[in-house]
Predict the structure.
Amino acid sequence: MNAPVSRFVDQKPLSSAKLISEQYARDGYVFPIDAFPFDQAGYYRRKLEELEARGEGHRLGNKGQLNFAHVLFRFAYEIVTSAAVLDPVEAVLGPDILLWGSTFFIKEPQTPSYVSWHQDLRYWGLEDSAEVSAWLAISPVTEANGCMRFVPGSHKFDILPHNDSFDDANFLTRGQEAQFDEAAAEKVLVELAPGQMSLHHGKLLHASGPNVSDDRRIGFTMNFIRPSARQVVASKDFAMLVRGEDRYGNFELIPAPDADLSETALAWHARILAAQNETLYDGVEDAVR
């Protein structure tokens, strides 16, 4: 029998930088954080769905994901550079912040797509683990439509062995699955209202189930790092300076998109996707990519 799942549906949103920092250090995650009003989240959903149609025919990501949206879409760039997102991130990382990646994870209604239990930092190729992922709900995010689940405190584990399943229904690039005693682990459901956000550590065990509801589940994840981080797997890597200064020069800095899906933005996107796939698929034969 699985361990009980903890629910925090009545948990009050956190706003204090001190409380965010303390809970993140203790648990490896923080939620819910009120980032944007409900109506603004609705606006972002409309913009996304309009631009999804325009982007057809271009390779915008891996396995149904929409990767590096902040490079392609002006509204996504607006999100990742907003104080609503960066103030909580600064509470964890400090004043100098790079954005390493962003992804829209969209689960269509009544579909089997899921995310297996994994630790992000197993596959990112980053030497420095000073990072935080912010996950913004664009639609309502519930257990029924496949919200994330966390194992509290698992960011204090070492990087665990992972097996690659290459399951087509798994959103992850390799279908990677962390090896641990899932049945014995406490689990927290990360249910969020549109406009709310969670933060989680790259070593935190997390997963999400399928969407058995009648609406899309839309989440936008943003991966932030300190400029001191360094890529040690890929031959080249990219990031966007979103707050403070970069005194290290370990990443080629990405400009803001000049327009939605412009030729310049698409060219940057192709370079970044190729470079980061060198890391994500490290050790995988080309034939199975």
User: Anything to note?
Assistant: The chain is about 25% helix and 25% strand. The chain has a mean pLDDT of 86. Residues 70 and 80 are 7 Å apart (CA to CA).
